[in-house]
Design goal:
The protein is mainly β and 588 residues long. It is built from 4 helices and 31 strands. The chain has one domain (3-195, 205-586). The longest helix has 10 residues, at 205-214. It is globular and about 80 Å long. Bound molecules: 2-acetamido-2-deoxy-beta-D-glucopyranose (8 copies). One 2-acetamido-2-deoxy-beta-D-glucopyranose is lined by residues 427, 429, 434, 436, 475. This is Peptide-N4-(N-acetyl-beta-glucosaminyl)asparagine amidase A. Keywords: Signal.
Length: 588
């Protein structure tokens, strides 16, 4: 339990809340005006500030590492200045050659960065051979500078990390006389040799099958765009009708296939869960207001048939809603955006024919813009060149979506509900045996949105339940199974009113973000369980007089509780940011 006060008293900052009128044009590249995206960056009057930089972080459990010395690969520091419209930063990756061991228990990607000055939060991606390893967002700097790092376990990409590849980083940034922040970035990959395990005995053949089913994939196919590209290797999806797709062809000895999908949402869909229904926008003649209602899903198709869906967690980037909320604790998932798994194994029987097939990605109700790409993890039979399989069952019911609207002028109440389930089953016979894999996904979504005070106040309450079950078994013994239940909660309140007595406009915001998950996994007979409760609550307000912020207050509380068969981890944080009277400048 830690509680600390982070006074931002010295920080002059510049906050401009936009309700319906966009104020910025060029400087605002890849940005949208929205009540939840204040055009806010923090700044000090003196950009020459010698105070030590503040360390930002996302609260998460540590990576469990073996007690061995890692061998590492480093990229010399790279600076991301004016990078919009330029190709990604490319560097030749070679696995570290000085490793005494060939067996690694963990491989960790370490991204560390510093920035000083004035800058927005920027989305970025790291790809190796076109396979995305990390999707993340930068922290917003201050005049005295900030520093942060992200560590991600990337052991699942082992087959890729063993070979020479091109490593690409795209971080779209804009630097001019106003936005001065250049991001200075170091990337390292650390290989931790496995500890000697003297007790390890060769298991029975089905135990070996179970462990190879569970170990990192043998081959990973990228579903990203090909180099060179000037705006990232992700596909850009800007409407419901846009399909991002790519042909592929799997080796005929693949016995397991898992698609990992990365998604992030920006501009008009950055706060998709608070987007207004089109009927409200039309009835009130609103312009420049993101619409299409608050429901979104990413749908994955194989040769045109729906095989899986993603109902994403509502990650809030570091400049979202009220930038003071995310200093120094970053929003859940913002430094390491979650990726989502879609089990493709049941469909292998259909794609083991050596021919080309097509994976497609769409976003229901999308507005400009979603960044989507994926990695197909494949496990190959080392004892044969061709395996056989068959899809036994595939049920994908259409999305059930209902909206209950009530409107009176700019006031209104909207209840949106949605459900979907997808299940499939198929067998693959390889040297591991005849394994039948069943997969089920089910989703349940509810969103209530209330607009009061003639649209000046908005309350959104959204809950997504997401169940995911994979069962893989030989005719008479289990091989592998996972069951997971995720609950994503997003509560958002924003209100603005004029305080006539003081001549100020007051903005108030409250946010609750919850990412809870219960999970169990069985490899052969070995069962592990975990539960995670990760909740952030932030509250703040700000008074603005003649476009100047005269006072601002924000407080964030986070409880992170992980309870696993392997270890437990608990963090309870509270931070407050207060700014009074020192705000003297603002941009327009
Ligand atoms: C920065 O501040 C220091 C100490 O206040 C001063 O000596 C120096 O000239 C300043 N540099 C610039 C570029 O303003
Ligand atoms: C990057 O690494 C170099 C060498 O270790 C170090 O001097 C520099 O400060 C680091 N930069 C960042 C942004 O961490
Ligand atoms: C990988 O790159 C290194 C450094 O350029 C080179 O020495 C090595 O021969 C390459 N390995 C392969 C398999 O191409
Ligand atoms: C919207 O515009 C139409 C056409 O200009 C007008 O008839 C209507 O009264 C307007 N509605 C509102 C709520 O302003
Ligand atoms: C594999 O198992 C499935 C389900 O039990 C069965 O339908 C199929 O015929 C088996 N395949 C082979 C090649 O034995
Ligand atoms: C897997 O799916 C098949 C085909 O629908 C079904 O017959 C079987 O009972 C399922 N197995 C399990 C363990 O759910
Ligand atoms: C909207 O609600 C506010 C109170 O939140 C009320 O004062 C106003 O009259 C309502 N407007 C309409 C058109 O009903
Ligand atoms: C802003 O929040 C602070 C702390 O909760 C509170 O004392 C203050 O009255 C609030 N101001 C407004 C205008 O809501």
């Amino acid at each position: 339990m830690a509680s600390s006060l982070y006074p931002l008293l010295h920080a002059l900052f510049l906050l401009l809340l936009l309700l319906r009128q966009p104020l910025f044009s060029t400087a605002n590249f890849h940005r949208t005006s929205s009540r939840l995206r204040p055009q806010a960056v923090l700044q000090d009057a003196a950009l020459n500030d010698s105070r030590p930089p503040t360390r930002f972080f996302e609260v998460t459990k540590p990576i469990k590492l073996p007690n061995t010395k890692p061998c590492s690969y480093h990229i010399p520091q790279h600076d991301f200045g004016f990078t919009y419209g330029k190709p990604p930063f490319l560097v030749d990756y070679t696995p570290p050659s000085n490793c005494p061991s060939k067996k690694f228990s963990n491989i960790v990607l370490e991204f560390s960065a510093t920035c000083k000055g004035r800058q927005f939060d920027r989305i970025f991606g790291v790809w190796l051979g076109g396979v995305e390893l990390l999707r993340s967002c930068t922290a917003e700097p201050s005049a005295s500078g900030i520093i942060w790092s992200v560590e991600k376990d990337i052991t699942r990409y082992y087959s890729l990390l063993r070979k020479n590849q091109t490593l690409a980083v795209f971080l779209g940034n804009l630097v001019d006389s106003t936005y001065t922040g250049v991001y200075h970035v170091n990337i390292s990959i650390h290989f931790y040799p496995a500890e000697e395990n003297l007790n390890s005995e060769p298991g029975s053949s089905w135990e070996n099958s179970a462990s190879s089913y569970h170990s990192p994939a043998d081959l990973i196919l990228p579903f990203s765009r090909n180099l060179p590209l000037n705006d990232g290797l992700w596909f850009e999806i800007d409407s419901s009708s846009k399909i991002a797709s790519k042909e592929f062809n799997v080796p005929q000895n693949a016995y397991r296939a898992l698609l990992e999908v990365y998604v992030s949402f920006h501009e008009n869909d950055e706060f998709w869960y608070s987007n207004l229904p089109n009927e409200y926008i039309e009835a009130n003649n609103l312009t420049n207001t993101p619409g299409n209602g608050p429901f979104r899903e990413v749908v994955v198709t194989l040769d045109g048939e729906v095989v899986g869906a993603i109902w994403p967690f509502t990650v809030v980037y570091t400049g979202g809603i009220n930038p003071l909320f995310w200093r120094p604790i970053s929003g859940i998932g913002s430094f390491d955006l979650p990726s989502y798994n879609i089990e493709i194994t049941p469909f292998l029987g259909r794609i083991l024919d050596g021919k080309d097939h097509v994976l497609g990605f769409t976003v229901t109700n999308a507005l400009n813009v979603w960044y989507v790409d994926a990695n197909l993890h494949l496990w190959l039979d080392s004892k044969s060149t061709k395996v056989e399989g068959e899809l036994l069952k595939h049920i994908s019911l259409p999305l059930a979506l209902s909206v209950l609207p009530k409107m009176k002028g700019l006031n209104g109440t909207f209840f949106t509900n949605a459900r979907r389930s997808i299940s499939s089953s198929g067998w693959v016979k390889s040297s591991l045996g005849n394994i039948t894999t069943n997969w089920t996904q089910s989703f349940d979504y509810s969103n209530s949105m209330v607009l009061e005070s003639n649209g000046n106040s908005q309350t959104v309450n959204q809950i997504i339940h997401f169940n995911d079950i994979v069962l893989a078994k030989l005719p008479s013994s289990p091989i592998y199974s996972t069951k997971s239940h995720k609950k994503f909660t997003s509560y958002l309140y924003s209100n603005s009113f004029d305080d006539r007595g003081k001549g100020t406009s007051v903005y108030q915001e409250k946010v609750t973000l919850g990412f809870n998950e219960k999970k169990s996994e069985a490899v052969g007979l070995e069962l592990s369980k975990s539960s995670l409760q990760n909740v952030q609550e932030a509250k703040g307000n700000m008074s603005v007089k003649k476009k100047l912020v005269v006072s601002a207050f924000a407080g964030t509380q986070q409880v992170y509780k992980y309870d696993g068969s392997d270890f437990c981890y608990l963090r309870n944080w509270e931070t407050h940011a207060l700014d009074k009277g020192s705000l003297t400048s603002i941009l327009a």
